[in-house]
Write a structure and sequence with these properties.
heterotrimer; A mainly alpha; B alpha/beta; C mainly alpha; B: nine-stranded mixed beta sheet; six-stranded mixed beta sheet; about 25% strand; C: mainly alpha; globular
Chain lengths: ~325, ~400, ~290
């Protein structure tokens, strides 16, 4: 976003049109996501969980990277989606696609409700209120163990095979295909939202929330809208996890999960569309590999990785790469 | 960022790159090709090696290493290979994925470990689907073994301990009790189990309270208990930092364990807790299936070997669960002559009986769950040290929950 | 009834004092330099482990270990501040977050490696055990000691801030950093010393906390949430704010658990959310 291209000179709509064009690296990336089916057939379960985490991270990027809302409680929507999908299947409706839609909608409704509170605050108060709401929901789920199964987790989750053909089995082919497809579709939506006038105004709100209404942008309404969209996407990610693993436990609502996705997003680079996806891939692969090598102290190496990234690649990996690319463009003949 | 290659460098770099690719392909092919080494039995250990529950996992893992050191790593002509995977804590989605990867990628024959209930439940599905033998070495919720017909357990179940304790408490003369448990699954189970055993034997529960799970300070709750002035108090808290905090709160609020009977699960008086509570722990009566103080030749040897291998640290229930789990695996393999199919191993395991460092134990052929002696202990000063001294026992206890529900 | 009410107030206040000691350093440094230091509780953990090591392995008496815990945490934070944090003062909040979380991970892994994952017990001297009785009221001695220590620290901090040159410089740097620099105040130096002091206090808090809440490698994570709650409710760069917030949270936590146990865990979060909605910059915050 640092360089100014000719198209930008054609005005905001020209700029947006230029942004929405698919670059070659993007197409190559999405094609590469199909490679695990061929090259890493025994890693598909991990790949599906990476895709789910990537979706969760992209949903956080919408509110954090683009609207500037730092949320430490985003797992609330992830968890709501997961429990909703789990409970829907427990009470007899095991069809995954419709369950997914229902669960995501529920998370969205909760997101809208939360957004009414969230828009009134900024800075540290906002961070802490989102944290508080997340922690309260976690406690509530623990107390309501008659509904959620409490610390032992939800029992009796039965998901029917996808389209009655592809069951979520040991190998994880259906799981990865399902999660990847949903990631791609929601990514398209997110991309559209970001590269629209609405998306531009969000960035304005992030930079200077007080000034935006002066320009005629209803900042509170916009923030409510994007928060709801992000909640729907996070809920979808949670529902996907519940459906592909047939397990739901309290940790989907935990502070740990909110903190993890925040770390992943910052690692990849917030406000850069692909940051969440790249962060998810890097973090989860690194974590899987490190914990395989050293189950007890792997987080030492992850800590070092995080420190190294901050020191050498400020603004996340994409930020660092962006700066490197800009420098490259400047020095190349 | 590397600088661009000059035209002269390109052919050299390309040929080097081709070589590297060729080597990589060759390595991959070799990796995929079946290993013609000696036949192995692979055990996948899924435990929370990092995070909040790292200590129980470490205790269990050390006992497993000890067993393998003492008994060698070859059974029935096959070499035992252990692959360790970390769940990081309560993470059933991760546990399930790790179980699936262990089976699909690493081709393990047996799944083992499992400190936490949600992880064990999730992996149970995988064990059932892939028909793999699974040994639960700690997770104590009763329903776990119903998840897969190939699963056995070598630790204990919460009802096994708490219901037995409730019955014993009433029979020992206590007529009223006030229960205090942590507000989560195992806590609720402990409360229900103890109250059921106590009430069925004719006792009266005068009140109960549940503390929040991550509760650092118990003074308020102990105060409530004191206000009720009950004959006895039953306490359940998970191991770690809370037992000592409870004990200290009891002492600070003036609840004398000699006047008001303090009853607890074994976690309440584990080693670190006793050390921290000091003399305030004297007189607390607890129920458990193992203490390193247990007086048997086998246990003395086990504790000594464990001390030597772990810088003087004593084994606890996690250690004995892991030790007995390995014994079970080895004996089952010997019985099947090295066959690792789920059906063969679980058939061999059913009905097995042996002498464990904790006492005599066995695997119930109907429920595949553990049958063992439950001990009642009191904290006493022996030779200047505070120890859990076993003064009563109930033998051959089966899991009462499943016994009730499978009739 | 009165006895238990006073008991709850007392215990809540003591718990609040513990939180205060752990949080005051973060409040000042966050307010002064706007540096998000999530590794604050790692210094507290360091202080705790220093105390345990000195007592268990070297047989030191409890009181003697406390100043060492303070100094060790202060020294470690000074080293880290110079090496890692200083280059990042201009970086974004998110980057600071990530860096300090990385440090937390490393510190937790390090503690687990060196000390193992087991709970570290501490054996208090006999005169700190037991309780003092006034009629029907019982006051545990250790908690009295904790309250005393925290009050002494508060008095010293406030006195230093109001009546010393250094304190004046600190206040200037907090109020308006640019002006302070313009006046020739070495803001970076002031910050380095304040940072070390704040972390030292956290280390002291960690050492004092062992008796009440225990010590294991996950301490750095677990107490971070409570500390951040105190800091945000109290208001940044405010000693008084941290004091009041910690007291309020400690008492409401205790009172909630005593009077309404099934709401027990909720209460501290409800109070936090409620207070922040009423006063978004904290009870004594500026801005």
């Amino acid at each position: 976003m640092a360089t100014v291209s000719l198209e930008a000179l054609r005005g905001p709509h020209g700029y947006l049109r230029a942004q929405t064009r698919w670059r070659r690296t993007e197409i190559a990336f999405w094609l590469a996501t199909l490679l695990p089916f061929l090259l890493f057939p025994s890693y598909l379960q991990l790949a599906s969980q990476i895709a789910i985490t990537a979706l969760f991270a992209v949903s956080l990027d919408l509110i954090l990277g683009y609207a500037g809302i730092v949320s430490l409680g985003h797992a609330a929507f992830f968890g709501l989606g997961a429990y909703a999908a789990g409970l829907i299947s427990k009470f007899g409706w095991g069809e995954p696609l419709s369950g997914l839609v229902l669960a995501s909608t529920l998370a969205g409704v909760a997101g809208y409700g939360a957004s009414v509170v969230v828009v009134r605050f900024r800075h540290l108060a906002l961070i802490m209120i989102t944290l508080g709401m997340g922690l309260l929901l976690h406690e509530a789920a623990n107390s309501a163990s008659w509904l959620t199964g409490g610390a032992d987790g939800l029992q009796g989750v039965r998901i029917r095979p996808l389209l009655e053909l592809f069951s979520f089995d040991l190998w994880g082919r259906a799981a990865y295909a399902y999660a990847l497809l949903m990631l791609f579709l929601t990514f398209l939506v997110a991309r559209r939202v970001i590269n629209s006038p609405f998306g531009l105004s969000l960035r304005g709100i992030r930079e200077n929330a007080v000034r935006m209404p002066a320009l005629g942008a209803p900042s509170r309404a916009h923030v409510r809208k994007v928060y709801t969209i992000a909640a729907v996407m996070a809920g979808m990610a949670g529902a996907l996890l519940a459906q592909t693993t047939s397990t739901v436990s309290l940790e989907v609502l935990s502070f740990q999960r909110s903190a993890d996705v925040l770390v992943i997003l910052i690692l990849g680079g917030a406000g850069r569309l692909y940051g969440g996806i790249l962060g998810a891939i890097l973090y989860m692969v690194a974590r899987d590999q490190f914990s395989g090598i050293n189950p007890q102290y792997w987080y030492f190496w992850i800590g070092l990785l995080l420190i190294a990234v901050v020191l050498f690649l400020p603004n996340g990996i994409l930020g660092g790469l962006g700066r490197a690319a800009a420098w490259w463009r400047r020095v190349s003949p | 960022m590397a600088r661009a290659m000059t035209p002269e460098e390109v052919p050299v770099r390309t040929s080097m790159r081709t070589t590297r690719i060729a080597l990589a392909l060759a390595a991959a092919l070799f990796g995929v090709a079946p290993a013609h080494a000696e036949p192995t039995v692979k055990i996948g250990l899924i435990m929370p090696y990092s995070g909040q529950f790292a200590d129980p996992a470490a205790q269990m893992d050390n006992a497993i290493k000890l067993y393998m050191k003492q008994n060698g790593d070859t059974v029935a002509g096959k070499k035992i290979e252990v692959i360790r995977k970390d769940t990081g804590g309560v993470a059933p989605d991760v546990a399930k994925r790790l179980a699936q990867e262990l089976i699909v990628r690493d081709k393990v024959d047996i799944l083992a470990g499992f400190v936490l209930t949600p992880n064990a439940l999730a992996a149970g599905d995988v064990s059932a689907e892939a028909k793999k033998f699974m040994v639960v070495m700690n997770a104590a919720t009763a329903i776990i073994t119903t998840k897969s017909p190939y699963m056995v357990r070598t630790s204990a179940t919460v009802p096994q301990l708490t219901e037995t304790f409730g019955t014993w408490a009433r029979k020992s003369g206590i007529k009223q009790v006030y229960t205090m448990v942590s507000d989560y699954g195992p806590g609720h189970d402990a409360e229900q189990g103890f109250q059921r055993g106590f009430k069925d034997a004719g006792g009266e529960v005068v009140g109960s309270v549940r503390f929040p799970v991550a509760n650092p300070d118990f003074s308020a709750f102990v105060q409530r208990a004191k206000d009720m002035n009950p004959e006895a108090i039953f306490i359940f808290v998970p191991g770690g930092v809370q037992p000592a905090a409870v004990g200290k709160a009891l002492a600070e609020r003036g609840i004398d364990a000699k006047k008001t009977k303090v009853l607890g699960m074994g976690e309440l008086t584990e080693d670190e807790a006793r050390k921290s509570m000091g003399d305030a722990s004297l007189g607390i009566v607890t129920v458990y299936h193992y203490d390193h103080n247990h007086d048997s030749v086998l246990n003395r040897g086990f504790v000594k070997a464990f001390n030597e291998a772990n810088a003087g640290r004593n084994p606890n229930i996690y250690s004995v669960g892991g030790y007995d789990g390995m014994r079970l695996i080895y004996d089952a393999l010997k019985k099947t002559g090295g066959k690792t199919e789920g059906d063969a191993l679980v058939a061999a395991a059913k009905g097995m009986k042996w002498e464990s460092p904790r006492g005599p134990i066995g695997i119930d052929p109907e429920t595949r769950d553990i049958v063992q002696t439950v001990y009642i202990r009191r904290v006493e000063k022996v030779g200047g040290q505070l120890l859990n001294v076993e003064f009563d026992r109930i033998e051959n206890v089966k899991d009462p929950f499943k016994a009730r529900t499978t009739r | 009834m009165l006895g238990s009410f006073v008991g709850v107030l007392f215990d809540g206040f003591a718990y609040g004092m513990l939180l205060f000691l752990l949080s005051v350093g973060l409040s000042v440094t966050l307010g002064m330099m706007n540096f998000v230091n999530l590794a604050h509780c790692s210094f507290a953990m360091l202080g705790g482990y220093v105390t345990v090591t000195l007592m268990d392995r070297l047989g030191w008496p409890f009181f003697a270990t406390l100043p060492v815990a303070f100094l060790a945490a202060a020294a470690a934070s000074a080293a880290l501040e110079r090496a890692l944090f200083r280059p990042l003062y201009r970086a974004s909040d998110l980057d600071q977050c990530l860096l300090t979380i990385g440090i937390v991970f490393v510190s937790v892994a390090g503690a687990a490696y060196v000390y193992g994952t087991v709970q570290q017990p501490v054996q208090l001297p006999d005169y700190l055990r037991g309780a003092v009785t006034f009629g029907s009221l019982r006051f545990p001695v250790y908690r009295l000691f904790l309250i005393g220590a925290a009050l002494v620290v508060t008095v010293v901090l406030v006195a230093a801030l109001e009546h010393t040159r250094f304190g004046a410089r600190v206040r200037a740097a907090v109020d308006n950093q640019r002006m302070a620099r313009g006046l020739g105040i070495d803001v970076d130096g002031v910050f380095a010393v304040t940072f070390a002091l704040g972390s030292g206090l956290a280390g002291l808090g960690g050492a004092l906390a062992i008796e009440i809440v225990g010590l294991d490698p996950s301490f750095a994570f677990t107490y971070l949430i409570y500390v951040i709650i105190v800091v945000s409710v109290g208001g940044l760069a405010s000693i008084g704010g941290s004091f009041v917030a910690a007291t309020l949270l400690g008492i409401s936590d205790m009172a909630g658990k005593y009077y309404v146990p099934h709401l027990g865990a909720f209460l501290i979060y409800l109070v936090m959310v409620g207070l922040l909605m009423w006063r978004p910059t904290g009870l004594f915050g500026r801005r």
